[in-house]
Amino acid sequence: MLSQHTQVYRGLLRELKRSSLPPHKINPALSSNFRRLAEQARRSDPVLEDLRNALIFLAAQREHRVLLDRYNPLVDLTAEERIHATARRVGLDMPITHQPENDK
To answer: What is the mean pLDDT of the segment spanning 30-43?
Structure first.
């Protein structure tokens, strides 16, 4: 059976893989820092609790991003694109704005 320290460390690595961009590519500095903290957790219970909290935070942050993308698809649009998308959502279409040409 795996120790609690190993389970938490592996859970952290799994969450880092799931939330990384590009997928499944972990930043080596992050993994080495978490490994160092996991080794320290063998000697100290508060460090193990901190690692558990970090694991919960990473999972919640990933889930938040998924829900935000699912229920708010306009989050990454510019203001003008957001207005057009909102108008289309309620069955309207934005009028084409007049672009005056400069006379020479």
So the answer is: 83
